[in-house]
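## tool: complex_structure
## caller: assistant
## args:
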Amino acid sequence: MVDFNDTPEQAAWRAEVIEFVEQNLPPDLEQDQLYSGTLGGLHRGNLSKERREELVKTWRQAILDRGWIAPAWPKEYGGADLSTIEQFILREVFTEMRAPIISVHDVGSTILVHGSEEQKAKFLPPMVRGEIQWCQGYSEPGSGSDLASVQTRGLRDGDDFVINGQKIWTSGAMTADMIFALVRTDAEAPKHRGISYLLFEMDKPGIQIRPLDQMSGASQFTEVFFEDVRVPVSAAVGEINRGWYVGATHLDFERSSIGSAVGFANRLNDLIEFLQAEGEADTGRSQLGRHEWVRLALAERATETTVARQFSNRIITMQARGIIPNTEASEQKLFSSELHQRISNTGIKALGPYGMLYEENDERTPQRARWGTYYLASVSETIGAGTSEIQRNVIATRGLGLPRG
Ligand SMILES: Cc1cc2nc3c(=O)[nH]c(=O)nc-3n(C[C@H](O)[C@H](O)[C@H](O)COP(=O)(O)OP(=O)(O)OC[C@H]3O[C@@H](n4cnc5c(N)ncnc54)[C@H](O)[C@@H]3O)c2cc1C
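## result:
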């Protein structure tokens, strides 16, 4: 039988993390997290942007000092060398206690696996200190799901590649210092074997960035154009023309993100508490909270959230045994992203017409308009990092061994 209880060592570690959060998390920030989230680039907090930034800076320094910004990384690169289980407990406690999780971009873990010693020393410590912002140059107008068909070219010229082409949906490119990009460096080779995974600065001559507006009101997305951009051959992570496999490692890290289940539970519990309070106060604002379908839907979401937690547990125990989750990462990504949409949908319906109010400071708006923000932001989650259909294809072919269509 599987025992989900902490071992004595894990319980001691959990107690240590709880004590750290109690002692170091600025109370205002904790309260702010209760009503916040930077989903879709929109802030739903009750602190001013300046005050929030100040408190986040204090909190950041406290976790930086413990090596908990990149807890899995070796200490020499600014990490804490924590075991997989310790990392999971750390993340779980932070989420349960509504402490902001400040982490490094997944590209760092990819560099740790495939990068040269020089690349690790150059990029990892400044990443931990928050000095390098990254963007991901994978998708192109004709290459999204079929990512291996990327057409952005890198022609060899001496010790450089000369890059020409276009990326799209590049999140955060406007503020990024560096990009990690999939670039076709051998046009003659079979499509998976002619791609390199390159790291280069975003202020290089020949790079042009154009923002794309989103329905949430934010514009995190961009198109990035390359015209004769010179990048040294040493910018490749892993072997030249074998970058597809480096990029795939990155996607496995991205898809196996494990923190979401606890966050979902927090949201549901907040909503349930809100509906209970509304019911008792009998304000009439949330009549829908009394309908049977709301109770049934919330019960279903609560059950599914427990299932999502088991997906996380599976990923964690695999990683703890040194196995990189692949199909399991796709299962986790598929289930969590679709569950986030169902939870958002249930939340916004349970609040009735008030759920649609988007003005966070209006007293009629429930829970500072969080549910509208979740609802809009969750739409994109079944697309980013590979669509639900692509995850199902991975599960069917690699997981179940079914023939490709
Ligand atoms: C929030 C978000 C952030 C993103 N950030 C980045 C980023 O930073 N960098 C980056 O490079 N990209 C980013 N993307 C882009 C994302 O990776 C692509 O949108 C995604 O891979 C899908 O590609 P596409 O949009 O070209 O759709 P397409 O590949 O054209 O797919 C269109 C539809 O066809 C379906 N489909 C396609 N092929 C198959 C198939 N073989 N079997 C079944 N169905 C199929 C898809 O599921 C989808 O429904 C981001 C996207 C989102 C939503």
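## assistant note: The longest helix spans residues 292-320. The chain has three domains: 8-103, 134-243, 256-399. Handing back to user.
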